[in-house]
User: What shape does this take?
Amino acid sequence: MHRQHRFTLTQVLSFILFVVNLSILTAQAQNLPPARYDGFVYENRQGDLDSILIEAFFDPVCPDSRDSWPPLKEALKHYGSRVWLVVHLLPLPYHDNAYVSSRALHIANTLNSSFTFPLLEQFFKHQEKFYNAKTINLSKTSIVKEIVKFATVAVGNSYSSAFESGFNDRKTDLKTRVSFKYSTSRGVFGTPFFFVNGFVLPDAGSPVGLPWLERHY
Assistant: This one.
């Protein structure tokens, strides 16, 4: 004879709570999506559904990323509110100082979002200081110190200790990792790389500038 089991409300609720907790623990072990969308919005100019969204993937010590920035900046100035830009960071593994440079940008953005693009432009302007050959005999600690000094020139000397603390904050490390993982999840394998309204450009490494936008939009 089949025995019928009866459960109390407390037992049912306890079982549901167990399942929920197990799900949370499992999700945490699998790297939950970040709390906010990756990337830096240029000039905090966030568009609407009728705007053209450009997503640029840069490495701050990549010469090609550097060279693609002026025409893109010119196009953004020309089109104003019709175009908005989100920059994602992809620190390329063969650029020895790409990761620490990208982390510096996340620290700057955490301190004040208005610091991010001036520091990015500073990296582009003086990136040869952090090329592989220039730092081959420096320790990682020495490079971090150099980048702290370099960054405070762009954002102000009063932020020197805040930048040093930022490099000891695990959150900035995780944000930099998220940027790398996000970029690779979109199929990005080099820099610069561009998406327009969610679609990868046919020649993604070519600069997006005023002539390109005028031809297509």
Observations:
- Residues 1-5, 18-30 have pLDDT under 50 and may be disordered.
- Residues 96 and 156 are 26 Å apart (CA to CA).
